Amino acid sequence: MADTPTTSPDIRSDAEWRSSLTPEQYRVLREHGTERAGTSCLLAEKRAGTFTCAGCGQPLFEQGTKFESGTGWPSFFEPLADAVETTVDRSHWMVRTEVHCARCKGHLGHVFDDGPAPTGLRYCMNGAAMNFEPAE
Fold it and tell me: Which InterPro entries match (predicted)?
């Protein structure tokens, strides 16, 4: 796993991804899985710091954008600039907006338009897809 974030794409073979991630991280990031609601240790994370991609280390969200959504997943109202990308997700007989890491393309979760000000967005992320780096 990359310790130092870069702006270059992170491209690995399936075997490399499997060896660098836990089974749950692999299921979420590479197979577009969803962790069970309320199971992420990042739900209770309130320290100053940055949430990063568990796959490649890309900084994704600052603590100040995290909020309690009551959904059971870590939620944020705004990602860092150029940190994430979105695609249309038509799985499970619905249309949603999938959020993935801009660098490694790992699945992070989905974004909805029912979040708080100032953006009105709720980035509903899988904790298994992220790590937390406390501020120094």
Answer: Met_Sox_Rdtase_MsrB, Met_Sox_Rdtase_MsrB_dom, Mss4-like_sf
